[in-house]
Design goal:
Shape: globular
Strand order of the largest sheet: 6-7-8-3-9-10
Low-confidence stretches: none
Strand content: 15-25%
Order of helices and strands: EEEHEEHEHHHEHEHEEHHHH
Structural class: alpha/beta
Mean pLDDT: 88
Largest sheet: 6 strands, mixed
Radius of gyration: 20 Å
Number of helices: 11
Oligomer: single chain
Number of strands: 10
């Protein structure tokens, strides 16, 4: 599902938060939204699923159009297609079993028990968990497992777009790696359009296709992740530290005049360096 921002502005009262946001998020891609605190990241992603409406301009989410002061009649249809996973989503758990937690959203639609059981099982499978989790207490799980349960509760509706707000906060290294595998699976196997708002440039560099950099409510940079992340000086101007792999590659080029290119993984970078040394 393609998403278009058409010269969008958004204000909280007299405070202008987003200014002339005009870009397109391509269907089936993973797009990173990055910027320091107060740059407008969270506001931007909340405009996509109708939590907020633009003050000026419009946001097109597939066939849905979000405009100023126009209430969406089919808001539930929009949110069926656009799922959002907030920061620390596990803090919102209130059921004592994984089955009840993941299946809660279906209750308002009067799903039959067997259909509900099937959907819960399928949603868990999509995040790499099996039916042995159904009767477990979500509060007893690891942080990484809790995050997967929260994602499964969104996937149960099979949305076309999934938005993550700072998804790696609170996750250790192994949980991050597991989460990265999940994101890649959602894109490749299930053809989801994925949007990730995050401060974690190393994580974004390893997973996204495109990057949008926000600075004081405006788009400072956008495009292919390599083209964006290699611009260290402009990122620094926005209060953003470039990914470690990019910084290293730039330093090798600057100090040794060796262009080793840009890689997603440190192991690939080491192989390239070895070739030059050899």
């Amino acid at each position: 599902m393609e998403i278009k921002f058409n010269h969008v502005e958004f204000s909280y009262g007299d405070k202008l938060v987003l200014k002339d946001i005009d870009f397109t998020i391509q269907s089936g891609m993973i797009t990173g939204i990055i910027g320091k605190s107060g740059s407008g990241k969270t506001t931007l992603i909340q405009l996509i699923n109708g939590l907020l409406l633009p003050t000026k301009g419009s946001v097109e989410v597939g066939t849905f159009v979000l405009e100023p002061h126009k209430r969406i009649q089919n808001i539930n249809d929009l949110r069926f297609n656009v799922g959002m996973v907030f920061q620390f989503p596990e803090d919102q758990f209130f059921h004592t079993t994984v089955f009840k937690e993941v299946g809660f959203g279906l209750e308002q639609f009067n799903y039959k028990k067997d259909k509900k059981e099937q959907r819960v099982s399928e949603a868990l499978k999509m995040v790499g968990l099996n039916d042995s989790y159904l009767d477990r207490n979500p509060f007893s799980l690891s942080n990484g497992e809790k995050r997967k349960i929260a994602i499964a509760s969104i996937l149960i509706f099979n949305p076309q777009v999934i938005i993550f707000d700072e998804p790696t906060i609170g996750l250790d290294y192994e949980s991050k790696k597991s989460f990265m595998r999940l994101i890649k699976l959602l894109k490749k196997k299930f053809q989801k359009t994925i949007i990730i708002a995050s401060h974690d440039t190393d994580f974004l560099h390893s997973i996204v296709d495109e990057v949008v950099v926000l600075n004081q409510g405006k788009i400072e940079l956008q495009g292919n992740k390599y083209d964006v992340f290699k611009q260290e000086k402009r990122l620094h101007k926005c209060g953003i530290i470039a990914p470690n792999l990019i910084s290293f590659s730039n330093k090798v080029l600057e100090k040794k005049k060796i262009k080793i290119g840009y890689r997603d993984d440190i192991n690939d970078l080491i192989k390239d360096i070895y070739r030059y040394v050899k």
